[in-house]
Amino acid sequence: MSYPQSPALPSTARLVRATLVSILVGAVILVTTVLPAEYGIDPTGIGARLGLDALQSAVDEPAASAESPPAAPVPAASTDTTEANTALAARAAAAFGANAGQSLDAAAFSASPGELRTDTFSVTLEPGKGAEVKSALKAGDGLVFRWTASADVAVDMHGEAPDAKGTWTSYAVEAAQREAAGTFVAAFDGTHGWYWQNRGTEPVTIKIVVTGFQPSLYRP
What we know:
The chain is an alpha+beta fold. The chain has four helices and six strands; from the N terminus they run ααααββββββ. The longest helix has 28 residues, at 12-39. The model is unreliable at 1-6 and 58-72 (pLDDT under 50).
């Protein structure tokens, strides 16, 4: 019975030549493709001709990710406010001279052509009933007020724009309150005031005093 012969092993010289060829091929690939694509190093210029340098540019300049979102734009200052402060600065410099410690806030002041007046009003609410007391104000007009009730009432201090139908802006709301006092500045032209509701079982009388530039205080 005969056995097949084992194939002849390559000689040492052939192994050395194969190893050198593999090293040479690897070096060529490293210099012409890997270095340009991964590190932006292109000593031969082949990487640029093959477009491999674009890959490195993409790595160096990644798009913004969710981890570092672009900064939100800072809203510009109101043009009207800036112009008003500029005019105020000119008047202040002309009247008193420049002062390094002076800051400006022209929006804090609103001139009124009307006369300062004080109005009082009284209204009695039967159980389950409500009533409004209001005044017509221009944007920037202010009030100082105080109201008292003989028992707790629900209250909504609010304003309505001209010709508003079923819409209003509330400024202060309480389910049970017996008195309140404070200041108020109208943010828009319209009617502004209070709505009280008696949720008790006995009549409640409410008295209010308002001082400001309001033309009147009335019950719609």
